[in-house]
Structures are given as C-alpha cells and as structure tokens.
Specification:
Blueprint (H helix, E strand, L loop, with lengths): L1 H21 L9 H26 L14 H15 L9 E2 L4 H24 L8 H23 L4 E2 L3
Antiparallel strand pairs: 1-2
Length: about 160
C-alpha cells in the first residue's frame, strides 16, 4: 500500500505541475507550443502512473490478461524524452537547486517523490515479487523529471539556481 500510495502522491504532484505549466502563478511564460507539448506529456505520464499503481497494487500471481501494467515501451519513451530535452541544455557543471520558477520547484518535488517511490518499491521487492519493470521505470522517470526541471527553466528564460560550494 505504501508503494502505490507513493506513486499516487507522485501523480498528484504531476497534476500540480501540469496546472502550474498551464496557469503559471509566478508569471513565468513558456511558449504556447511548448506548454501544449509538455502538458500532453504530463497527462500521458499521469496515465502511465495509474498503470504503475495497478502493477504495484496487484500481486504478480494475481494479474489478469489485459491488466494495465508498466511496459518496456513506457521506459523507452522516457529515454527518448530525456534525450530530446537534453539536446537543448548545456553541460551541467554544478548541482542545481530547486527554484527559479514555481514549475521548476514542483518538478523537483515530483522528482524527489519519484525517488522515494523507487526506494519503497525496492524495499517491497525484498519481501514480495514486484513487476520487473517497476523499479527501472521509476528510475528513468526520476531522471526524466530532473532533465525536465532544467528544461522548464530554459524554456522560461530563467537561470537555473546553482549550488555554491
């Protein structure tokens, strides 16, 4: 329950990200075409997170034909998203801090909850069998969210908040 509850929490934060993207409360502007593209990505992600929740909420031996589950194509799509978004970003030479825009901070919050979901799923896997793609999906999703946090700052024309040594 903790595992799919954490995925549900992540889905709620993704919903907040989508609302902030579409109606920025801090006045930051992202081009309409990019807002539409990323809003669709967030929406598709919310759908995939429901599949992930189904995967986690059902014992592997109790699955039924056609049950929504995370698939390799979901992981492949995350990889493609990471690569495409990274093409627009410079080389990272410092750690980044959440902030600069509200959307950036919310995407970082989603990333950290995703990492927690990954840790909880790994802990669960020590006690019972979980879907073989659950942990790899969460791992790639947290990386996608990190890249997206950088990208939304770039799209808004706001410098990333860098960590000072």
């Amino acid at each position: 329950i903790e595992s799919y509850g954490t995925v549900d929490e992540l889905n709620a934060i993704i919903g907040l990200c989508r609302v902030e993207l579409e109606h920025p409360s801090d006045g930051t502007a992202i081009a309409a075409s990019e807002r539409e593209r990323l809003s669709a990505w967030f929406y598709d992600l919310q759908q995939a997170l429901f599949d992930l929740g189904s995967d986690l909420a059902t014992l592997v031996e109790d699955r039924w034909p056609g049950q929504p589950l995370v698939e390799q194509s979901d992981i492949d799509a995350l990889e493609a998203f990471i690569d495409a978004e990274n093409e627009h970003l410079g080389v990272l030479k410092s750690f980044v801090l959440p902030g600069g825009t509200r959307l950036n901070a919310l995407v970082h919050q989603a990333r950290t909850v995703c990492r927690r979901a990954e840790r909880v799923a790994i802990a669960l896997s020590h006690h019972e069998k979980v879907g073989e793609l659950v942990v790899p999906y969460l791992n790639r999703l947290s990386d996608a969210l990190f890249v997206l946090s950088r990208r939304v700052s770039h799209l808004a024309g706001v410098p990333e908040v860098l960590w000072r040594k």
